[in-house]
Amino acid sequence: MSNKTPFSPNISTIASAIQPFHVMKILAEAKILEASGKEVIHMEIGEPDFASLPCVHQAANEAAEQGLTHYTPTMGLPALREKLADFYGDFYQANVSQNNIMITPGSSTALQLVLTALLNPGDKVMLADPAYPCNRQFVNLLHGELLAIPVSHETQYQLNLDLLKANWQAGIKVVMVASPANPTGTIIEQNELLAMAEFLAEQNAYFIVDEIYQGLVYERPAESILGNVNLPENVIVINSFSKFFGMTGWRLGWCVLPEHLISVMDRLGQNLFLAAPTPSQYGALRVLEQDALQALEARRAIFEQRRNALINAMQQASFTPKLIPQGAFYLYWDVSEYTDNSEQFCADLLQQTGVAITPGRDFGDYQAKQHVRLAYTTDIEKLTLAVQKISGFIHQNADFETVKSNLPGLVGFDIQGII
Amino acid sequence: MSNKTPFSPNISTIASAIQPFHVMKILAEAKILEASGKEVIHMEIGEPDFASLPCVHQAANEAAEQGLTHYTPTMGLPALREKLADFYGDFYQANVSQNNIMITPGSSTALQLVLTALLNPGDKVMLADPAYPCNRQFVNLLHGELLAIPVSHETQYQLNLDLLKANWQAGIKVVMVASPANPTGTIIEQNELLAMAEFLAEQNAYFIVDEIYQGLVYERPAESILGNVNLPENVIVINSFSKFFGMTGWRLGWCVLPEHLISVMDRLGQNLFLAAPTPSQYGALRVLEQDALQALEARRAIFEQRRNALINAMQQASFTPKLIPQGAFYLYWDVSEYTDNSEQFCADLLQQTGVAITPGRDFGDYQAKQHVRLAYTTDIEKLTLAVQKISGFIHQNADFETVKSNLPGLVGFDIQGII
After folding, report:
1. Does any domain span residue A413?
2. In this structure, what are the phi and psi dihedrals at residue B394, rounded to the nearest 5 degrees?
3. Model pLDDT for residues A212-224, shown as the tens digit of each residue
4. Does B3 map to a domain?
5. Residue B328 phi, psi dihedral angles, 5° rounding
6. How many domains does chain B have?
C-alpha cells in the first residue's frame, strides 16, 4: 500500500480545454496498422518527406567542432540575421534590416511571442476558419477573443479586404493570415495583402502574415509582403526554416518585426526561450548559400510535380476538387458528396485502405465535417495509388453513392499544366 | 517622404512590463571595453565556458547522416526518454517511468508549459526572493500572482517547510524551488524537500522542483527529489542538458510529470513548440553514455576546484562570503559593507577593473542592492586575478572604507576542504 500524501489534480481551465491535433489519432491508428503488417500511405503528415540537405548538418557539425555550441544572443546569430536580410533583398527586392529580424526556435515560438507582445486579455484576434490550428490556441492561452471568419473556396479559403471590412468591429487588435496557407495551399495576392495592411493600420490593428510556406509555390514566383514599399508599421512577418528549407527537426524560424517591437520581443525572448538552437543556426546559415538554394528549388519542383500528379489522379477518378493549391503541400478537399462526418470518413478510409489523411476538424469548425486535408508529402506512385484506393473506398460504401452532377469546375488551375 | 499609413504602437501591458536581464547591460558594456582593447574577466555569465563534448555533435551528425532530421514526437525521442528513465534509476535510485518524462526545447519551455498547465489567472505562486528571474515573468505572463518570500543566508537563501507554513495563505496553487539554486548555489536537503512536498499536497498545491543544476554539486552526492519513495502526485521536476551536461546551445531540457499531467502537457507541447530539436536529442542520447558521463564528472571536479580557489582568494583578500555554494557555479555575495547600490558597484567595477559580475537586481527585490552574483565559469587564474582586482577596487574607493569587524563567519563550509 502506498503511503503517499493524497493529492487532487487541479489543471488550469485553459490548458484543460486545449485540443490535441486530431491527426494524431489517425497517426496512432496508422502505426498500429503498420505494426500489424499492413502498408499505409501517409498523406496526413505536414512535413516534407525529404531529410534536411547534407550541407546543413555538415555546417552545424563544423561549427560544433570549432566549439561553437554556446548560447547565441536571444535575437539570433548576427551572421544569420544579416544573411536573411540579404536573402530578402536578393529574392524579394525587400529592404529588410537585420536589426528587424529575430531568430526563434521554430515559428511556433515566433507566433507565441508576437501574440504575447500584442494581446491584452479580451483583445480580439481575427483569423480565417479553416486555418493553422495552433494560432487559435495561442490566442486562447493569452485570454484573447477569437473572431474566426468562415471562408470557403469562393475567397480561396482566405481573408481579404472585403471580409475584413464586412466583419470589422471594435476591439480587434490583430488579424492573422497565412500565404500560402495550411490547410488549403492558397495565396493572398500582393495588392490584396497591402490593402489589408493599410486598412488595418487605419484601424490601429496589427497584421501578422505567416509566410512559413514561402518559396513553396507553383507556376508563380515566390513573394513576400515585405516586398512592398511603404508598408505600414503594423506588419509582422513569421517565417520558418522547416518547409521550403526542409529543416523541420532543427526547430528554427524567424520573424520580421517593425521597429517598435524589437526591444519588447528581445526581452520576451530572453525570458521565454533564451536563444534558438546554435547548431541549427549554423546549419541555416549554410542553407542560404546559392548551391543549397538550388537543391531546394529542385525539391520545390518535385512538390509541384506531385501536386499535378495528385490533381490528375483525382480527375481520372472523377473527383473534382474545387480549388487547386497554389503553394505549400496540401489539398483541402470538400468531401460533402460522400460524407457528413469527415472524421469518420478518415478513420474508415484508413482502416479499409491504409490511406491516412487529416479530417477538417483540425483546422476549425466551419464546414470542417465536409473537408479533409491531403498532404502530398510522399512520392507520385503512392499518391496515385492512394487516389485509386480512395476511389475504391467511396464506391464500395453504398452511403456515398450520391449523384455527382452540376459540380463547380476547377478554379484557378490551368488544366494543361497538369501532366 | 514616406507614404506609409500611420500607425501607433500598441504593445500589451504585460509585455511592456517585462524586465530585461540587467546583466545584459553589463555584458554590452564589457563588449565595448573589449572592443577598445581592454581585457575583461567574465564572471557575469551563467554558462559553462566548456563547449559541449565532441561526442555530442558526433552523435547528432551521425543521426543526421542517416536522415534523422525530421520532427520527433512532441514528448520526445522514445529512446531518449527511456535512457533518462534509466539514468534516474542508476544515479538516483529513482523509479521514474519513461512515460512521465517529457523532452523540451530547453528548461525554459518546460517551466513555461508546466505553469501554463497549472495556473488560472489570479492563482498564487510562491517562490524565493532571490531566484531565477524568468520564473517571475512566466507567472506574470499567465496573470498569476507572485508571492516572493524574502530569504537570506540564514535559510541558505532557500524556502523551507517553516517558511511555507509561516507564509501560507489561501489561493496558492504552486510553490517553486531550485536545488541547487541560481543565484546562490545552495541546496535544499532531501528530507526538507519531501516534507515540503507533503505539506503542499495536503494544501492541494503543486511543487515545482528545478533540478537544472543537478549533478553540479560539491563535496556531496548529487540527489533528486525523485529518489524519494511515496512522493505525492503534486511534484514536478524540471531539468536541463545545459549545465551539468554542458549542452547550452543545443537547447534541450526535460521535465518529469505526475501521471495526470502527461496528456495536458503533450497537448500544450503539440501547440506551443511541436517538438524539441532532433539533432540535440540524438546528442543527448550520447551524452548519457558512461564515457561521456565520466568526462562530465571531470568537468564537475574543475568547477569544484574553481569554487574552492575563488573562496580561497576571497579569504586572502579578507572578504567573508556568508555562505559557500554547495552546487551550480555561482557565489551570491553580500556587498553591503561596500555599497548600498550593487548595480552601480558592478558598473564601476567593470569600468575601473574590467571584472564583469551580475547585480542582485536580476534575481529579485529583497536585499538586491546589497548583493552581487559571481559566476565561476572561467579558469582559476582569472578568478584569482579578478578577486585581487575587486579588492583593489574596494580599497581605492574611499566610500567603501567601512569597519569590517564582527562579521559572521563562514557557514556550512569546511575550510580545510579548500586548496
Report:
1. no
2. -65, -40
3. 999 999 999 999 9
4. no
5. 60, -155
6. 2
Give the ipTM of the model, two decimals please: 0.93
CATH of the domain at B308: 3.90.1150.10
Same domain, B254 and B355: no
* Shared domain check, A246 and A343: no
- The average pLDDT across A362-389 equals 96
- Domain annotation covers residue A179: yes
Q: Last residue of some domain: B288, B318, B333?
A: B288
Contact present, A232 and A197 (Cβ < 8 Å) = yes
* Phi, then psi, of B173 in degrees rounded to 5: -100, -30
Cβ–Cβ below 8 Å for B273 and A105: yes
Looking at the fold, whether B250 and B380 belong to one and the same domain comes out as: no
Residues A310 and A340 reside in one and the same domain: yes
Residue-number span of the structural domain to which B281 is assigned: 54-288
The reply to whether residue B279 touches residue A278, judged by beta carbons under 8 angstroms, is: no
C-alpha cell read off for B307: 569554487
Summarised one tens digit per residue, pLDDT across range B377-392 is 999 999 999 999 999 9
Task: Identify all chain A residues contacting B278, using CB atoms and an 8 Å cutoff.
Answer: 248-251
CATH number of the structural domain spanning residue A154: 3.40.640.10
- Min mean pLDDT across A179-193, A382-396, B69-83, B397-411 is at B397-411
Answer yes or no: do B122 and B226 share one domain: yes
- Average of per-residue pLDDT values in chain B: 93
Give me A303's grid cell. Answer: 512538390
- CA–CA gap between residue A330 and residue A243 (Å, rounded): 12
C-alpha–C-alpha distance, residues B314 and B312, integer Å: 5
Is the Cα torsion angle B38, B356, B340, B361 positive or negative in sign? positive
Q: Is A229 helix (H, G, I), strand (E, B) or coil?
A: coil
B204: which chain A residues are within 8 Å (Cβ-Cβ)? Answer: 7-8, 10
pLDDT of residue A185: 97
Inside any domain, residue B198? yes
> Do B29 and B142 belong together in one domain?
no
The answer to whether residues A313 and A388 touch, using CB atoms and an 8 Å cutoff, is yes
| Same domain for A277 and A149 | yes
Are A123 and A266 members of one domain?
Answer: yes
Closest residue in B to A27 (Cα–Cα)? B73
Give residues with Cβ within 8 angstroms of B292, minimum separation 6. B53, B55, B56, B286
Q: How many beta carbons lie within 10 A of that of residue A262, not counting itself? A: 16
Long-range Cβ contacts of B313-321 (<8 Å, 24+ apart):
B313/B383, B313/B384, B313/B387, B313/B388, B314/B387, B315/B418, B316/B387, B317/B387, B317/B388, B317/B390, B317/B391, B318/B391, B318/B404, B319/B387, B319/B390, B319/B391, B320/B404, B320/B407, B320/B408, B320/B409, B320/B410, B321/B410
User: With contacts defined as CB-CB under 8 Å, which chain B residues touch A139?
Assistant: none
What's the CA gap between B330 and B375, in Å, rounded? 4
Q: Mutation test of the interface with chain A: which of B1, B3, B8, B10, choosing the one with the most A Cβ atoms within 10 A?
A: B10
Question: Where are the extended beta strands (E) located within B27-69?
Answer: 41-42
In this structure, what C-alpha cell is assigned to residue A135?
494560432
* B383 min Cα distance to partner chain A (Å): 21
> At CB < 8 A and 24+ separation, what contacts does A341-346 make?
A341/A369, A342/A368, A342/A369, A342/A370, A342/A371, A342/A372, A343/A22, A343/A369, A345/A372, A346/A26, A346/A372
